[in-house]
Amino acid sequence: MGFRMRFPAAHALLTAASLLAGLVLPQPAGADAPPPTGRPHLRVVVIDHSPPFSDRDADGLLVGFNIDFGRELCRSLGVVCSFDAAPFKQIIDDVAAGRYDIGFGNVLRTPDREQRLLFSIPYWRSSTSLVGRRGVPELGLEEAIRSRRIAAIRGSRQHAALLRLADADPALQANVIPVSTLDDLWEAMRSGQSEMAIGPTLNVVHFLLSDSGDGFETIGTPMSEDGLGGTVHIVFPPGQHDLKASVDRALTALRNDGTYQRINRNYFPFDIY
């Protein structure tokens, strides 16, 4: 059975440092310089614009769930971390190449990525949601693409799902509206360029909680099959097994002492773990 997610109604729904001392590598361009300290330094990268996980405030400072949780993780590890931001695909490439030590890229674990990266234990779970104007009938994705223009971020797993459906019927290609960013995703609906949008559920939640989300709601239930969801992981360069083990222990400790839940509540009305 489907559900409609418009808030506040959806509130109901919805730690080692010694192991890290040898990890400092050449500083990537654009990242913060490590502060003068005797503690080990780690370079952390997050997605450049994926609210509420990561974004920049009016002063250009990185803010969001991944930044707050990343800082607590670094504190628990006893290291100093600098944070940088990059597009999603660049995060995977740069962490795999060792230009960063930790990637908070909201990365799903897939066989091809396992060939290039190490993965932490899960730290939240992802799904995908359709969103449209309030009052749109509940539709599954395959049904929706046959009757509605749907915006998706170009190159995302949601975009790939739409293209797979459209490949079966070339006439449906016109109903796939590729856009570049999350902001473009929501603007496509507001402007009428598309009738629906498809994106990660937690980004959809953030949109619906904002003033811009007034008049919109989720269409149908969140989707996780066919690559549209799953467990999300912190990623590390290949070979950094000690770092991964330390982060896994720290992540578990931060959930056990309630730190994770406290940060979670600052951004989401339900537990995302």
From TrEMBL:
Key word Ubl conjugation present: no
Keyword entries, A-Z: Signal
N-terminal signal peptide: 1-31
InterPro entries listed in its UniProt record: Solute-binding_3/MltF_N (IPR001638)
Boundaries of every Solute-binding protein family 3/N-terminal domain copy: 41-271
Alphabetized CDD domains for the sequence: PBP2_peptides_like
A Pfam family that the UniProt record links to this protein: SBP_bac_3
Sections of the chain in a coiled coil: none
Domain of life: Bacteria
Name of the protein: Amino acid ABC transporter substrate-binding protein (PAAT family)
Organism for this UniProt entry: Azospirillum brasilense
Classification of source organism: Bacteria, Pseudomonadati, Pseudomonadota, Alphaproteobacteria, Rhodospirillales
